[in-house]
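Researcher: Good morning. I'm working through a list of sequences from a screen, and I'd like to move beyond sequence-only analysis. For each chain I'm collecting a predicted structure so we can compare shapes side by side. This is the next one on the list. No need for commentary yet; just the structure.
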Amino acid sequence: MGCIARCSPVGVARVLYDNNGLRVQGVGPLIAKTATRSVTSDGYTYEFERGGRLRTTDELGLLTVYDRVEPANLSVDRLTEYTGRYFSDEIDTTLDVVFQGEHLFLRRRLDPPVALRPVFPDGFSIGGVWMVFQRDASRHIVGASVSGERMWDLPLRREVQTTTTSR
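Model: Good morning. Structure tokens for this chain:
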């Protein structure tokens, strides 16, 4: 059993509880200090707050705040919602999200397609890079942002697909 917490721009901590106790995936076990505060062997502090918020503090005092999100559980029909062309004015580039087989791929001109792995609703990982899709008030996908080690919240707008008819 577990939950996923995400911070902005995007980082994910998967907190799990199993027969071995409470742990953070990829980090290790949490050692309880109080009912809401735990530490890890490497000096990080994890504080669980009401409402699903998680605050972590590293050994240097750097604070990161995460909000609880549900894990992605997307059907094939839901995955196709994300397909389309996305453009960044900032870096003048176009990215295509395509559906092949039963998976989404990110494709950029001249580069091989890269699989988008769903992590939480509207959030996908691509190795150490994150792509989070944005929706409008009607729940239509209108854009996305990409975040990575040296890039936070690079905005991408979804290009409107037009159809042409011949006479």
